[in-house]
Design goal:
Elements (H helix, E strand, L loop, with lengths): L1 H6 L5 E3 L2 E3 L6 E6 L4 E7 L3 H20 L2 H17 L1 H12 L3 H21 L6 E4 L6 E8 L2 E5 L7 H13 L2 E5 L6 H13 L6 E3 L5 H9 L4 E7 L2 H13 L3 E5 L4 E5 L5 H13 L9 E7 L3 H13 L19 H16 L3 E4 L14 E4 L16 E7 L2 H9 L3 E2 L1 E5 L3 H10 L4 E4 L14 E2 L2 E2 L4 H6 L2 E8 L2
Parallel strand pairs: 7-8, 7-10, 8-9, 10-11, 12-13, 12-18, 13-16, 15-16, 18-19
Antiparallel strand pairs: 1-2, 3-4, 5-6, 6-22, 11-21, 14-15, 17-20
Helix pairs in contact: 2-8, 3-5, 3-6, 3-7, 4-5, 4-7, 5-6, 10-11
The structure holds nicotinamide-adenine-dinucleotide (NAD).
The site of nicotinamide-adenine-dinucleotide has 27 residues, from helix 8 and helix 9.
Length: 483
């Protein structure tokens, strides 16, 4: 199955509806993080290839933008159906290149496909309005035009969904795109291209250029006047660089960056529900998610009960190759990611944290790290300020509502916060005081194609999903007239 699946996956660049090698024949290896085996050698786009991809997207733009919204919608709807037809194959591919367990990969494929269904429906609701100028009586007609060519840059943690969350609204809006997937996980998007072609996406509308030379390749595209949108998901550090590059040509940025999510459990919470939510918020994708709960604040009265239950649940997860039956915890994406988790846990333990479960790196091969629960974590532990990006829960206690709000907000990030309480009035009061773009109130999952996903502060600019996600790819124009 493994070799069969990989034998049919494309490994070249997809430009203008054709596969091609990179202009200088450069390639890079893709590794299976569960076995450390090289599974593919993928073409690495050069600056010339990036230019060719922008040429293709630029050439395809006029005709795609001129299509009726319904025609574009039908193609997106078809893409949703075809992805779901191929769900199992795509899920296995995600597991092989990213490491996540198959149930997580299946859920990701369904989530990824849903962005095409949602935007197939949302793209036909590109409405404007008419106003009357108060002084002159002139009519002000407001409408929204496709912005132009969009450059999309995505991370490795959700190889399918982070890309379709951008391709869906871009295509629905009438934009054409050049996508640069993460070098750790380029195969999923390459495998999607024949599916989009089958759905009826014309040549040049979507181009995919994996590259080991991300900095130069993306920078070159951001200095091409035909590019009007840069939509990026990844680390705050790289997002900041892209914002600098985008400034030169005043390219519209949409930035989905890092997070440092607090997970607050009040003394009146339903503890079993909080544990269920915690397992999703912490363990979806092995903790390799920008939305992952990074800091647990549990009221001192319920701390011991919560910690004991979380220890049992997390300790009960089967770790192994994500393709194997019953496995819920695959390897982390690479040695660097695994070593960072080891470092953060060591640092916390040195500063007084107690390991309730996990904390021991197994022998290789594979970049495995076990589900780990830490209590008595010191305020000075580095993991409270940085994304752990691994299956580690750090628990601290608190006494009062005001105190926990202050501690939760004490971060430069503002992506998502979770809170559990039996008192909805308190839930709403606290939610409004938390400086995060998204709040999970008695819920451990906020991601939904119908919701505006995005962060405040250094977690980003703009929103993906919902109507807001469509607006990122549209320019507002108004026509002033009289009759
Ligand atoms: P990363 O920033 O290292 O890489 C993201 C993408 O940018 C990759 O395609 C990479 O090749 C490319 N890249 C790297 N350097 C570049 C440069 N100089 N110029 C242009 N492109 C460059 O992030 P990652 O390690 O792939 O992903 C993890 C990060 O993504 C975490 O910080 C996580 O929180 C964040 N993330 C955020 C969201 C969100 O929606 N807010 C979702 C998923 C992941």
């Amino acid at each position: 199955m493994y070799d069969n699946l990989l034998a049919n996956v494309p490994t070249d660049l997809w430009i203008g509806g054709k596969w091609r090698k990179s202009s200088d024949n450069e390639c890079f290896d893709v590794i299976d993080p569960a076995t450390e085996r090289t599974i593919a050698s993928v073409a690495s786009a050069s600056v010339d290839d990036a230019k060719a991809a922008v040429d293709a997207a630029g050439d395809a733009f006029e005709a795609w933008a001129a299509k009726k919204p319904r025609e574009r919608g039908e193609i997106l709807r078809k893409a949703f159906e075809l992805i779901m037809r191929d769900q199992e194959r795509l899920a296995k591919l995600i597991t092989i290149e990213n490491g996540k367990a198959l149930p997580d990969s299946r859920a990701e494929v369904a989530y990824a496909a849903e962005f095409f269904r949602w935007f197939a429906e949302e793209g036909v609701r590109n409405s404007g309005d008419m106003r009357i100028a108060p002084a002159s009586g002139a009519r002000i007609l407001v409408h929204h035009k496709p912005a132009g060519v969009a450059v999309l840059v995505t991370p490795w943690n959700f190889p399918a969904a982070m890309a379709t969350r951008k391709i869906g609204p871009a295509l629905a809006a009438g934009c054409t795109v050049v996508l640069k997937p993460a070098s750790e996980t380029p195969l999923t998007m390459l495998a999607l291209m024949p599916i989009l072609e089958e759905a009826g996406v014309p040549a040049g509308v979507v181009n995919v250029i994996p590259s080991r030379r991300s900095g130069r390749v993306v920078d070159a595209m951001l200095h091409d006047m035909r590019v009007r949108v840069i939509s990026f998901t990844g680390s705050t550090e790289v997002g900041r660089k892209l914002l600098h590059s985008a400034a030169d040509n005043i390219i519209r940025p949409a930035m989905e960056l890092g997070g440092n999510a607090p997970f607050i459990v009040f003394e009146d919470a339903d503890i079993d529900a909080a544990i269920e939510g915690a397992m999703v918020a912490k363990m979806r994708n092995m903790g390799e998610a920008c939305t992952a709960a990074n800091r647990f604040y549990v009221h001192e009265k319920v701390h011991d009960a919560f910690a004991a239950k979380l220890k049992d649940k997390m300790g009960g997860l089967k770790m192994g190759n994500g393709l194997d039956d019953g496995v819920m915890l695959g390897p982390l994406v690479n040695a660097e990611g695994r070593d960072k988790v080891i470092e953060l846990v060591d640092d916390a333990v040195q500063k007084g944290a107690r390991i309730l479960v996990g904390g021991k790196t197994p022998d290789g091969p594979g970049f495995f790290y076990p589900a780990t629960v830490l209590t008595n974590v010191s305020d000075s532990a580095t993991m409270l300020r940085e994304e752990i990006f691994g299956p580690v829960a750090s628990i601290q206690t608190f006494k009062t509502e005001d105190e926990v709000i202050k501690r939760a907000n004490d971060t430069e990030y503002g992506l998502v916060a979770y809170l559990y309480t039996g008192d909805l009035k308190r839930g709403m009061r606290v939610s409004e005081k938390l400086d995060f773009g998204m709040i999970g109130l008695n819920r451990g999952l906020v991601s939904d194609p119908a919701a505006p996903f995005g962060g405040m502060k250094q977690s980003g600019i703009g929103r993906e999903g919902a109507h807001e996600g469509l607006m990122e790819f549209l320019e507002t124009q108004y026509i002033s007239t009289n009759w």
